Amino acid sequence: MAEGYPVPTAEVSIEIEVKRSRFIGLAGPAPTIEVARAFIDSARERYADASHHVYAFEVGHGASVTHGMSDDGEPSGTAGRPALTVVAHHELGDVIVVIVRYFGGTKLGTGGLVRAYTQATQEALAVLPHEMKVEREDLILRLPYERYDVCRVALGKWAQIEVVDESFTDDTRLTLRGPRSDLDGLIAQLVELTAGRLVIETPQD
Q: Which class in CATH covers the domain with range 135-201?
């Protein structure tokens, strides 16, 4: 079974109003820190007249992750931190959320700000479409020409593995791409089918 984690596939926006202050929640994919920064810059340009542009992002997922946040002028701990708490505990990885605030004339207080930014972040993430992201690797296999047909049948049963290229000389050379766990499973199978005559190569950069 392929490993992976859910990531956003599109950008969304929601809006809530709290005591005449408008909070616009923008969310989208952030596979890199650069993409997250570009999303933030775009939100600032699009809503240049807003009072605040608070953000929180998570690039990666699980043990390998980079977080970022900003209160953007709101009292410390009332905006970016609540938004990041929601993002960090959500199932999605590679995600950026920007909460744009238009001040409505009434101060919300520390608790009110925390609740508003938390709600806006939750509602933006709730409507964000997503799919599973699976890390894929390339691998080159060489196998005896006479074992090609039986190995190709076995390979066809691994739906997540793609044949990028194949060539035929004295032996058969297959360039494959797929999730690491699936490639390991296929290799074990092909070693048996070729009686140990499978040669594994790592593609050169």
A: alpha beta
